Amino acid sequence: MTILSRNWRCRIGELDIVALDNHELVCVEVKTRRNVVGSSFTPFDNIDYHKRKKLSAVFARYRLHHAARLRRMAIRRLRFDGVGVTIGGGGGICSSWRTFGRAKIRVDYRRNLTTVSN
Q1: Domain span at residue 44?
Q2: Contact 83, 107 (CB under 8 A)
């Protein structure tokens, strides 16, 4: 995967990461949340229907703004992925957690969170 843009902004919003992955244009949304004891919520829970709809509109604006560049890349498909960063702060920390400084963090990557219309 090759990153094309980070924190790309326009009037209606921002895309955290735009990348190219084997002729797929990928919009990656990054969400962070603290680990709360007894909570089953994940960072991905914050990417609801309204957030996906807004990201789709910003992604369309990105594609218009970079149309000539993207045409040369022979894009065949669009994809919407997510990165969830959970910062440890209580129970529920398991072996998949890593130490970053003094904090425990877990990073999850999910492909195809939703279909982004063309």
Answers
A1: 2-30+40-84
A2: yes
